[in-house]
Amino acid sequence: MNDEIVYSIAASTNINSNEISKYPIPEINELDINLSQLHRNYKIIRNLLKPNTKFMAVLKGNAYGHGLIPIARELENCKCDAFGLVRLIEAYTLRNAGIKTPILMLSPIAPYQVSWIITYNITPMVDNYKIVHYLEEHASNKNKIINVDIKINTGLNRYGIGSDKAIAFIKQLHNECPHINIEGIYTHLQDPDSNAEMTHKQIKCFDSLITNLEKENLRPKIAHIDNSSGILKYPEAHYDMVRCGIMLYGLEHKEGQITLPQGIASLITLKARILKLSTIKKGEVGGYGRNFIAQRNTKAAIVGIGFGDGVSRGWKEVLIAGHKVPIVNYFMDGIMVDITDLKEPVSEFDEAVIIGSQGKEQITWEDACRPLGSYIDEQIQHITERVPKHYFYE
Question: In which pathway does it act (predicted)?
Fold first, then answer.
């Protein structure tokens, strides 16, 4: 039983995780995650960068739904330079698991989180003096130096201090906060996928700020701006580090936004077992409500994965016996599919593939999200913790 499953179960019970690990529970669905493909993706992206450009892997959202601890451990073995997170609980989880790689919090922290930030050697993003005051006070009390990254707002208008105020802010930190080391400075691109004009404007603004900081000998050691799309489309903005999120997992936010480099692919196969086979007579309903009324005598299969596992209503098809078959109704714990047209024999507990390949057919995240009108990273986040994660090497 892998560590992430142990962590997930132990987090919701009082059972000792070592005890859990002795009694793995086979489930009727699972998320297979290919760690060999993760290594390939990492190496391909790393080779796009200059030798001295650092690589931050963004692991927010439970490593985009792939499992925080196992993915972090693999990337630490790859000598990844830093991890980007958003929630303190995720940073704590990695430190508690023995992960030593530098961690940057990519969103604001609250004053009551400061002591945890210092204790667990986590680098916070700062964009206002109020939080800096708390950091300086706690660091002084513990006689520690804490690294921070300053975020600059260049047009996303979410977090960050305005570029026109940044130099004064940095000078104030240097003059008033002896226990704070400004290690990095960064901004976030608003729409690098489709708005080149806006992106060039942001890069130009950031460039100008960096130049002015250099003139005053105030430039932090690490400047960074590019995300996954930026890495591919704006190599001039790789700077000292890039922040790679969804591309590392072989995915894009929405179909057609970026062209992934050759060799990069998804890590995930999502599959489940057939729990029941039945025949629904013409005119009868299948499942709740009147969502499906059989127009013919219909062979139906109930597959053991539903919206309680993360397969949203509106998901169109799955693979059974190497063929795509339509989903006709949805339940919390299963989906009903129409297998009438299959010529191959099908048995209860045969495997159904929700995302991945079976025979010569394939269903990708793009295929699944197209009828939903949804983003790929959003749908992956819907896969719940009751679907066990199975990690493997080829």
Answer: Amino-acid biosynthesis; D-alanine biosynthesis; D-alanine from L-alanine: step 1/1
Radius of gyration of the chain measured on its C-alpha atoms: 24
Q: Looking at the 3D structure of the chain, how many domains does it have?
A: 2
Whole-number average pLDDT of the chain: 92
Compute the distance between CA of residue 44 and CA of residue 212 in angstroms, rounded to an integer. Answer: 34
Contact 371, 365 (CB under 8 A): no
Q: Give me the CATH number covering residue 368.
A: 2.40.37.10
Residue type, 4: E
* Domain limits for position 218: 35-249
Residues 139, 81, single domain; the answer is yes
> How far apart are alpha carbons 76 and 132 in whole angstroms?
29
Q: Would you say 82 and 101 are in contact if contact means Cβ atoms under 8 Å apart?
A: yes
Annotated binding residue 46: no
- Is 313 flagged in the annotation as binding? no
CATH value at residue 226 = 3.20.20.10
59 and 100 co-located in one domain: yes
Give the pLDDT band (50/70/90) at residue 5. Answer: very low
- Strand stretches in 35-81, DSSP E: 54-58
- 195 and 77 housed in the same domain: yes
Query: DSSP character for 278?
Result: E
How many whole angstroms separate alpha carbon 31 and alpha carbon 269?
6
Report the distance separating Cα 183 and Cα 180, nearest Å.
Answer: 9
Which of these three, 249, 284, 301, is where a domain ends? 249
CA–CA gap between residue 208 and residue 158 (Å, rounded) = 21
* Per-residue confidence (pLDDT) for residue 258, from 0 to 100: 72
158-199 pLDDT tens trace? 999 999 999 999 999 999 999 999 999 999 999 998 999 999
Beta strands in the chain (DSSP E): 29-34, 54-58, 82-85, 103-105, 125-126, 146-153, 161-162, 180-186, 222-224, 241-244, 268-280, 298-303, 317-320, 323-330, 335-338, 351-358, 361-363, 389-392
User: Which residues are tagged catalytic?
Assistant: 60, 288
